[in-house]
Design goal:
The chain has 397 residues and is of the alpha/beta class. It has helices at residues 15-25, 51-59, 62-67, 90-94, 101-112, 158-164, 232-242, 250-255, 286-289, 292-295, 298-316, 320-349, 354-366, 376-383; strands at residues 6-10, 29-34, 45-48, 75-78, 84-88, 97-100, 116-120, 124-130, 133-138, 143-146, 148-151, 171-183, 193-198, 201-208, 213-220, 264-271, 277-278, 281-283, 386-388, 394-396. Strand 14 (201-208) and strand 15 (213-220) form a beta hairpin. Residues 6-335 form the FAD-binding domain.
Amino acid sequence: MSQVKSVLIAGAGIAGPALAFWLGKLGLNATIVERAPALRTGGYAVDFRGTAIDVLNRMGLLEQVRACDTHMGDMIYVDRNDRQMAVLPAAAMSGEIEIIRGDLVGILHDATKAGTEYIFGDAIAFIENKPDGVEVIFESGIKRHFDLVVGADGLRSSLRRMAFGPEAAQVQDLGLYASIFSVPNTLGLDYSGRLFSAPGSLAGVYSARQNREARTMFFFNSPEPLGNLRDVAAQKGAIRHRYQGQGWHVPQLLKHMDNAADFYFDSVSLVSLPKWSKGRIGLLGDAACCASPLSGMGTGLAVVGAYILAHELAACGSDFVSAFANYQARMQPFATASQKLAMSARGGFVPNSSFGIAVRNLMLKVLPLMPGNVIMKPVQDAAETVTLSPDGWAEAA
C-alpha cells in the first residue's frame, strides 16, 4: 500500500477541524468539505473534561478555549411560578471548561485554515473505495481522488449512510427530542440557568457570552415517534404542539423560535457500529459513536478521537487498515462509557411523571449530604477512560 498523503474530511464542526489540525502537524494534506455556506458560529454550550483538556493543551489551544469559558454557574430547577425546587451543580452541566460551540468552531478554524483546504457550500454526492484511493464526486459535480476519507459530519452523517448502509441500523433513539437555539437574555440571567420540568418534558434557558445572550433548550418525549423530521417548519410545529399550555416562561421562549438563526432540532440518539471504518473510509466523532447531549461527552469524543486517529495514521504509515482498527480499539471504551452515561441520565433529566420529577428534585437536595461525589464520579471516570502517555500514545486506562 502507498503512503497516505491526502485526506478528505466531511464536516467543519469540531471533530473535522480537530483532525485536520493533527494531520497538518504530520505533514498530510487535509481537505474539509462542509455543506453549510460558512462556519456555523452560533449553537449551544459544549464542555471539556479529563483527557480532552490534555488534548487541547497539546494543540496549544487550551488558553484560547479558557478565554471563551462561559463560567456558567449552577442550573436552578423551578416550578411554573419560578420558585426554586432544586439545584443542579455547575460541574454536572458545564464540565471543567465550557464554551459556546460556535466559539470553539472559530478557534479550530483559525488554527487550521492556513494549512487546510476548506470547501464550503458543497457536499459528497458519491464515494467509491478503490485499491489506490477513494474516488469522490461532490454535489457541485467536481471529481477528486483522496487516499482516505473521514466522515465527521455528525449524528445524521451523510457519508456514513453512503458507505455503511441505512441509518436505521446504526442509530438508536432514546425516546427524546431536543431543540436548542439563541434567545435574548430577557430573564437577566447572571452566569446561570433555569430549568422547568413537566412530565415528559423540560424547558430551560441559560446565559451565554458574558450574559449578552442566552440559549433556550427543549427536551421532550412524544407519544408517537416523530420520524426523521428534516423540515424546519414541521420541527417547530412539533415543539409548539408538545409544549402547548405549559406555564413558566415557555410561551415567551417559543415566540423567539421563529427568528432564531441557529435553530437546532433532532432526536436524542446514540450511534453504534461494529466497525468505524470500511476500506479507506473512516468515521469520527458523532458520526462514529454519538453519545447524545445527555452524556456531556460529545466534544471530548471528537477531539480525543481526532488526536488518536491522526497518531495511529502516523504510526502505521501506509497500513491504514491497522490505523483505523487501532484507533477504534483505543476509543471504543470511551465511547461505550459515554453512551452508558447517556442511558442512565435519560430518566433523571426528563422524568416522565410528576412523581419522577419530585424524586429527582429530592435526590438533588440530599446530594450535598452524601459522601463522595456520586453524580460526578462516573462522569469523570468516563472522561478519563483514555489516558495519553508523554510520547503521545494513548492507552486504555
